[in-house]
Here is the input.
Amino acid sequence: MSVHNEVKKVTTHRLSEMKLRGEKIAMLTSYDFSMASLVDDAGIDVLLVGDSASNVMAGNETTLPITLDQMIYHGASVVKGVKRALVVVDMPFGTYQGNSLEALTSAIRIMKEAAADAVKLEGGSEVIESVNRILSAGIPVMGHLGLMPQSIHKFGTYSVRAKEEAEAEKLLNDARLLEEAGCFAIVLEKIPARLGSQVASELKIPVIGIGAGNGVDGQVLVIHDMLGITQQFSPRFLRRYHNLAAEIKGAVGNYIQDVKSSDFPNEKEQY
Ligand code: KIV
Here is the structure.
């Protein structure tokens, strides 16, 4: 391999340099080897093995049912397809909230068994003990504030978060706390754009938004949503870059027709 072909892996340090020079960070989710290698080849900076796998891969209504073993399976599959992007794996519900030792054990399993580059978890002051313990083992942590889907049963809706001053103040304090603890980045989900900009300008670490406006340091979307594979989910923040559902159904329809009409396989497609 020539020097020019060498792929320079994205690191947490590189992300902070990107923030410093005002270069936006592009992040997407992936859950399997084939999709991850395509998205990595396309030049994505960060690949998130999100617990949204619970929704888009397993068909669950919430992110709560997905297990640590399942996240490790998805994480290991993604890591094998990636040469350049930083791979972050979500810590699933119930593996870090109540007990910082269990949090550390879960994070170590993700790093060892999936060979991830970092972990992500939801929450601020409530989980800071777990964050500190994971960081103390040298494991990079990405925070996640705003709409936290693992807490859906506490709030009851997926509506915009931190519209009221008290909640916005708590979010800002939690963001400061996560930065002080040593998190390398924070995801902000579904909050007013003004608050997103405020957090991003106050913090030195990169702030990645999903429905947090354009004043943050980067954006993340769920790959199934932005490619138009999921069809019912259409929040305001989602930009669809393709209608893959229609393309897949069209191609499968053509295949069915060719099989039924005995057009497939033809002479060149057999031995
Ligand atoms: O699980 C996930 O896909 C996420 C993103 C929405 C940020 O946490």
Observations:
- The chain has a mean pLDDT of 97.
